[in-house]
Structures are given as structure tokens and as C-alpha cells.
Amino acid sequence: MPSWIFRRCLLVLLFIAVPVSGWTGESAESGAAPPEAATSEMAKVEAAPEEVGQAEAKAEGGQRHRRLLILPFPFYNETIGPGLGVGVIADGYIQPRAGLVVASLVSSSSFLVYVKLGNLQVPVVRRLLFEPDFEFGKLRDIHTYTGTDNPGFPGERAGSNESDKNNFKTSDGDDKWVNLYTKFLLPIGQGKESILPRIRLERGLPVSDEPGSGSWNPLVSGRSWIEVTPFMRKQTLEDGGASTKTAGIEAGLRYDRTDFRANPTQGSMLRGWVTRDWGALDSTAPYTVAGGEYGQYFPLGPSDRARQRVIAFDLWTVNCLTWDASSVIDGTPTFHRPPPYKGATLGGLERLRAYPAARFNDKAGILYTLEYRYILDWNPLKNVTLNGRLQVDWFEIVGFGELGRVAPNWTVETLHKGMKADGGIGVRSLVNNVVVRVDMAAGPEGWATQMFVGQPF
Question: N or C, fewer C-beta in 10 Å, the chain?
Fold first, then answer.
């Protein structure tokens, strides 16, 4: 195959992956799934920090570095079908270190528009960063795993750990969400002297003095963030489907000791959060969810064919504190539980990637993930710049395995019985300071291909 054909095939793969927001290509057995809520997950899609030289030039009145990439592309997805899309990646237009990702997808019967802004500093309070994301679209063949009224599965709760893979309802409908992710950097540790780390990158890998290890003391090392996200998501389903709406606030604390948050090569990350929907703004039901996550990154260094090798581990767990509470809403007894796409949810983009989005959902959940990330020394697109609009720093091959489950109660014993597992491989790349990924996973119920932006953890 001529080299120019190979490079163009890689470009098509990259830009099919870049704009896609939460869509899953499923096997015939798995079926199609709706896009997932992008709350804390999308907070990880950050514009990469500037190199030190660029930052100093701007401080001295130098010209701001701006870069804009707009690319139309054909695509196919189980949910939307065949269609056309337009992807946009913009750096440095709003602020020197702010980034923007936009995607618009349209087919004969469906469409989706997605917008994500990252690293936008609030002018009056410089330690306050604003990173909102928005999505709206009309979807077909949405699979919902919820309820106990499926006549084909009497007495079985769809979405439970033991539920049948075919216990779901299919509907067309509309889906929209807003996440106003906001974070405040505490003036302790490495956050005491600088707000955004001035990391020097060499072909997309950090080589600066921003350490990813050191003391487990927030007063000395790492960056501690207070995170607050007002959110709203409404999914309106046709054909008798269960329409849902949730609106509330997620608040938490993140302690980040990694060297480069967009693509960590060493260090750790610890966070905890509480999500509360008070039942206002026409929400389906009030609820409270608490969760925690721990990630650890072990650098193995370069090899003959790899620029970097990393073993990445992640532990995620969630519990709905109001699961058994209930009240009468509009004359109907209603449990205080989140929608199936919010709370203890497994399946889709980030967790149990071989399964459809929200395939498993219950009161509590846990997931262990292990990845081996291998950044190739080989980069066939390093000299393809599209007149300065494109920068592909590296390609990464990833092998991963996942083990987890949902349960009606949060107990160590219950959460570690009858666990679900999957495994797979992925191809990822750093494109214009944004990690794009295509993960292919297989499990007992089938296989799926997940396309998204940002590392899963």
C-alpha cells in the first residue's frame, strides 16, 4: 500500500474518533445504546498545558498561539446510522490555554450536536476554572435497561447484575444535557505557587519539573481541587418509553498527583463526590449518590520501540444513599433513585466497555480497571500538519481488562460476587493536545467499539 494512502486512512480514523461524543458501535448481540451523561468523565478532557517557552512569550506580550481544525467526515453508528459529521478543535481563541471541541453528526433520521470547553479561567478569580459541556440530539433505537414490567422477563429487574442481556426497551427519542463543570484550585501543595501547571512537552510527553510522585501530603505535593457541577439531563422517549429528567449539583474534592492530567504517566489521583437532585425543575425524582475513585500510574519507561510504557490502575465505586426512600410525586409513589444513566452505572464509554451504555444499573456499583499503555516511537503522521492546523504527537496501543458489578446493597461481600468482566485493545492518539481513542472490548454478552475523547481515567 502506498504510504500516502496509509496516512490518509489514519487521518480518517482519527477524525471519526475526535468528534464522537458518547456513541458506541455495538455488535449485533449487544444492540445500540444512547450516549452517556458526561459529568466527571468529560472533566478529564482538558486542553494540554502550554510549553514553558510559549507561556513566557505571552507574558512578555508575544502573539497568542491559535490553532483551528475543522473537518467534515462520513461515519456510521448503530444508533444514528450512516451519515455525515463535522468536527472542530480550537486552541487559544478564548484564552491562551483554553480549548474547544465541537461535534455535529447528522443522518436521515438522527442528529447530535456536542460542545466541550476546557481550561477557561474566570478573570476575577484566577483559581476558578470553568469547563462546561452541552449536548442535544434526536436519536433512534435507544435501549433502556430499567423497570420490571417487560412481559418477556416477568419479575426480573432490567439492568440488575443478573438480568438478561435482552431485557431492555427500544424507543426513539430526544436527549439533551448541560454540565457546568467548575473547579477551584486550593492554594496548597503545588497549587500554591501556580494555578495551571506550566508543563513542557516533548512530542506530547511531559519533560518538565511538574512531578507525579512525592509525599502523600496535600499541603506539600499535588494539586487539590474543589469541584462543583450544576447539571441537567432530559431524555424524552417515544413509543411508551420511560422519559426521565434529572437536575442538581455534583460536588467533590480531587487530589491530583499526576504529572500530566490529560495523559498521566506517573503518580496518582484520588477523588470523592456527592450528587444531589432535589426534585426541582421537573426532575423525575430526588436522589443522593456518593462516589469515590482512585487511579494509580506506574511508569515503565521507554523501550526499543516505545517512547513510554505505563501500567494504569483505577478503582471506582458508587452508592445511592436514598435508594429505598420514596414519596408521592404527582399522585404516584416514587422511589428516590437516579435515572439508569446516572449513579451506579456500568457499560458504555468508560466502564465495562464491552457492554451497551447503562447496561447495568442499581443502588451500588464497583469497577476495577487495569490498562497497559504503550506509546509507539513510530508516528506516521508526525509530518502531516495541514498547514499548521494539525499536530499529531503520538499513537498509543492499549490492552485493558475490567472487572465489576452493580448490586442492591453496598457491601464488600456482595460487590465481589458474580462480577462481570471484559477485556480489549485500543488505539489512541494525542491530536492538537486532545487524546482521542478507539477502544474495542469483548465480554460474555458480545463486543463493542467505543469512540471518545480523553483517557478513560
Answer: N
